[in-house]
# Entry
Amino acid sequence: MGIKPSYIKSIGNELLARHPERFSREFAQNKQAVAEGTVIDSKGVRNRIAGYITRKINTGKRSPGRRSTYSTHQQKSSTPRRLLEAMGCSHSPA
# Structure
């Protein structure tokens, strides 16, 4: 699809960091987990986030030598505060 907007990556990374057990290698399961775990009205945005998470997990599975890019200690949250609040997450400044 091309380059993902930063908010898709930010929300996807935030969800992976907070709830890694909810996501799998399957897009359909991730789509359901994103729909249940967020308050995002746009189906297209939810699907793009689920697709980003699926690709991130599957790429990590193929490359065991690579470090995970979605662990909480490696990334500072740049997700806009209103999106985090909409997801029900509290945001503390890093």
Observations:
- Residues 6-86 form a domain with the Diphtheria Toxin Repressor; domain 2 fold (CATH 1.10.60.20).
- The chain has one domain: 6-86.
